[in-house]
Design goal:
The complex is a heterodimer. By secondary structure, chain A is an all-alpha fold. Chain A has 10 helices and no strands. Chain A folds into 2 domains: about 40 residues, no CATH class; about 190 residues, Orthogonal Bundle (MetI-like fold), CATH 1.10.3720.10. By secondary structure, chain B is of the alpha/beta class. The chains are: A mainly alpha, B alpha/beta. Chain B: InterPro entries: AAA+_ATPase, ABC_SmlMolc_Importer, ABC_transporter-like_ATP-bd, ABC_transporter-like_CS, P-loop_NTPase.
């Protein structure tokens, strides 16, 4: 029953699409806007199986690999920066008074508006795309993690002091381990924007990548390819989220909230 | 001889005096209960003992040491909540009592010291009846078990004084009674100097050798914040709070024999 209810909205959307596609194709069999599901499946099979005539590579997997590397680098850099900066700002009052206002203002800068600067500064290569993702989500992660640090009960810090812990020991042994599960939660939330920045950067200047491909075939109204790529990106995002969630559960069993972890 | 000495202690927040003219001398091995109404400054006094805050005037010395500027290994603390580290297992919490202060990194520097800390932790687990829970995380422990763990963790660091901030306030009455027995046993074993803030008068008298009452001696109805609190009563609470009566009964027995 529960599974049936979960599937219901997906089935409904599929039916609506199939109906609309049928109507359009009945009027004009060469309509490209809403291709029939059978066409999409055929296109998808061709995309994942047939190598490109010029390069001999299967572009679909090539695009996937390149995009995932960009995403991983950007998110990884942002996570590391966010963790270190969030811990320092949250734990040490001097750091907080120096940097928290700066980070608050920085996080208001629209990252896409900075993209031209990145292209000018770093060229059109990989660096500018990774930088956009990192710049886009780092301020959010810093603010999130510094807030989480502040929320750690002061009793814990005092207790560690009474056990003789230095500031470094408190940061490394008391605060950092408690931040890691929150970092995973923060990264899960930041992945949506991260994908957005990745696809935006690829759409504007790239030679390969999932976002690049979508915006390339848009010129030919190749909805079957676009829909395949969109479905694939959605699937990847879903799987990454799932992996992060289960990693968090496995690595930090003590952090599981009593009422379950929601979505 | 006086072990903990409080001299002319004042504490003021934003111009409002909370504590004023607190003078106190406590001998080693004494269990001091601190009671008083809400807002009477008893928690402030505990934070000053802990060196989490510094007095506006006056000073606190422990065993002749210079007044501390920050909480340190001389002072053990058990709070009502959050006293143990939720991200460590029960056993790791007890090992951390040695490890956190061992090096600047908060880890034990050698295999031998690690082994020694583990032995201490295992003995403590046995002593507090949590040997079967060593691998569990504190969140899966009952409130009473968590507080037993917190007390053991503090004692492993061998503090000069142990501070308890309403340690049993969140426990149900049955658990609380068994915690009292546990604490009295521990105190007898370790000969600890203990300061306990409590809301519960009977608890204060049951556990304490001395019961201090904090209250305001001066009170201006138009300026309720004008004056701070101080120690208004200092009871000798040994023998259930009736040392003189028991003395007289013994005397009577002697006479009759």
């Amino acid at each position: 029953m529960g599974y049936a209810l979960t599937l219901l909205p997906f089935v409904l959307v599929l039916f609506v699409y199939m109906g609309a596609s049928d109507i359009r194709l009945a009027e004009n069999p060469s309509d490209k806007i809403l291709p029939a599901p059978s066409t999409i499946v055929a296109t998808a099979e061709r995309l994942v199986g047939e190598p490109d005539k010029r390069s001999g590579e299967i572009l679909f997997w090539n695009d996937t690999g390149i995009s995932l590397v960009r995403l991983a680098l950007g998110v990884g850099i942002a996570a590391l920066t966010g963790l270190v900066a969030g811990l320092l700002i949250g734990l040490f009052p001097y750091m907080r008074s120096t940097f928290s206002g700066f980070v608050a203002v920085l996080s208001m800068v629209p990252p896409l508006a900075v993209l031209p600067i990145l292209f000018i500064a770093f060229g059109l290569g990989e660096v500018s795309k990774v930088a956009l993702i990192a710049i886009g989500i780092t301020p959010f992660l810093i603010r999130d993690l510094s807030q989480r640090t502040v929320e750690i009960p002061s009793e814990q810090i005092v207790k560690a002091q009474t056990l003789g812990a230095s500031s470094l020991a408190i940061a490394l042994r008391v605060v950092l381990p408690q931040l890691l599960p929150r970092l995973i939660q923060g990264v899960r939330l930041a992945l949506g924007p991260a994908w957005l920045f990745l696809i935006a950067a690829e759409a504007i200047a790239a030679e390969a990548g999932l976002g690049y491909r979508i915006f390339l075939v848009r010129r030919y109204l190749a909805m079957d390819i676009i829909l395949t790529y969109v479905a694939w990106i959605t699937f990847l995002a879903f799987i990454i989220d799932l992996l992060l969630r289960s990693a968090g559960r496995r690595l930090f069993p003590w952090s599981e909230p009593a009422g379950g972890s929601g979505l | 001889m006086s072990y903990v000495t409080v001299t002319d202690l004042h504490k003021t927040y934003a111009g409002f005096p909370i504590l004023e003219r607190v003078n106190l001398s406590v001998e080693k091995g004494t269990f001091v209960s601190i009671v008083g109404a809400s807002g009477c400054g008893k928690s402030t006094f505990l934070r000053l003992l802990l060196a989490q805050e510094r007095p506006t005037r006056g000073e606190i010395t422990i065993d002749g040491q210079p007044p501390a500027l920050e909480p340190n290994r001389d002072r053990g603390i058990v709070f009502q909540r959050y006293s143990v580290f939720g991200h460590m297992t029960v056993r790791e919490n007890l090992i951390a009592a040695e490890a956190l202060g061992a090096t600047v990194w908060g880890v034990l520097p050698s295999r031998a010291r690690r082994k020694a800390a583990e032995d201490v932790a295992d003995a403590a687990l046995e002593r507090i009846g949590l040997a079967h829970m060593g691998k569990a995380y504190p969140a899966s422990l009952s409130g009473g078990m968590q507080q037993r763990l917190a007390i053991a963790q503090s004692l492993i660091a061998k503090p000069r004084i142990l501070l308890l901030d309403e340690p049993f306030g969140a426990l149900d009455p049955g658990t609380r009674a068994s915690m009292h027995d546990f604490l009295l046993e521990i105190k007898a074993e370790w000969d600890m100097t203990v300061f306990m803030v409590t809301h519960d008068l009977s608890e204060g008298f049951k556990l304490g050798d001395r019961v201090l009452v904090f209250d305001k001696v001066r009170w201006d109805p138009h300026e309720p914040h004008a004056y701070g609190a101080t120690v208004t009563y200092d009871f000798d609470a040994r023998n259930g709070g009736i040392p003189f009566q028991s003395l007289s009964i013994e005397t009577v027995e002697e006479i009759t024999v």
